[in-house]
Write the structure tokens for this entry.
Amino acid sequence: MYDLLHPVMRASAVLGGPSLEAYLLARHRAIDARLERAIQDHAVTQVIEVAAGLSPRGWRFASRYGERVTYIEADLPAMAARKRRALERIGSLSDHHRVVELDALAGSDPSDPASLAAVAAQLDGDRGVAIITEGLVGYLPTDAMLAMWSRFAATLSGFPSSCYISDLHLGSVANPAVHAFRVALSAFVRGRVYLHFDDAADAEARLRECGFATASVRPAGQLVTLPGDPGSTLAHILEASTR
């Protein structure tokens, strides 16, 4: 998909427009920066990355923080197995860095081993928790996404400090390059890619309706220094907490 879009992105860059690579790097680095802050300033020492895929974030944070942080990478069975094999090869897996099977759309029954409730039950209830998603919410219909957010809020409310950090693409940020990316991505995943909200205020209100006490959606450029490529201005990061 990246190769397919490369001519479009190159033409966009020549014309002073955004590139896909800058957008993806912006959201990834901004999520990293907010998670670092949550660990350093808000007593978060446990992380669940939902739909972690092949992101290297868990490996980087496990390498950086060691036993100070428990990092759980969660995904559907096939991807979880692939990620576990990759981390085994580089020697990263331990009690503080592990991979589990989790279905982001599973309900709240802790007896379901694929549910977030079951994964969270493995954590220390006296320590802070962060839930991370990156590149997930756009694949979900709005109702499914809001139900997932409600489960996140319910889970995090059981811990003394908490945060949910994710990327979020807003409908108000649209141009031909973004449209090309959405069309190509929809074709590759054989499904629709969703834009749920027109602006940050709408997203923040829905997060509060889902049970979060505080919520903010900000451009990635306000959270971390980014390159000058306009693609970096398209990324927005949401942060929400139940405290």
